Amino acid sequence: MNREQLAKMELLIKNREETVDRVLSEYCQEDGCPCGFRKFQYWAGKEQGPGWQDSIQNQLVKSTLKLKCFKAIDDFKKEYWLEGEYYCKNCGTKWKHFSEEWRMLAFRERLLIIGKSNPEKLFEGIVGAEIFATAGSEPKGKTLLTLEEWEKFMVE
Fold it and tell me: Of 53, 74, 88, 151, which is most buried by a Cβ count within 10 Å?
């Protein structure tokens, strides 16, 4: 990768981080946390793969865990790919954070509400267009949203 490509990649990542932070900020400004928003529950918890990852979802999970209202639970039952459990100091919702290494140094991040069913049915078939995929494993039959479309979807 040359310098120009690297700079372009860094700009893309920075733009994704800023966009996700803007969406989370809007949720927190409105309700004090993102927990009650169905679109957040869907996007943070939807399944990825099998041969791809959604970069917007991964950033959403990472940025969410940095929010002041999210607090790690020290004592939790270990599960496969479970990185930790968290609770929201604002509303009391408890979450499980899963991080699956599906390919060497490529991860799929998910946040699932403890005790609630899979969020897939909330908005079935919508994924971010910023995916990383094994050749031939790209998501088929899914609606792909660009970062700008994702932001609009999340805040409408």
Answer: 53
Residue 86, strand partner residues: 72, 95
Rounded distance between C-alpha atoms, residue 128 and residue 145, angstroms? 5
Residue 57 forms beta bridges with which residues? none
pLDDT digits (tens, 9 = 90+) for 74-92: 988 888 889 999 999 999 9
> pTM for this structure?
0.92
Give the number of other CB atoms < 10 A from CB of residue 45: 22
- Lookup: tokens for 67: 């929010």
Selection from 59, 57, 54, 56 nearest residue 138 by Cα: 54
For the record, the structure tokens of 134 come out as: 């094994």
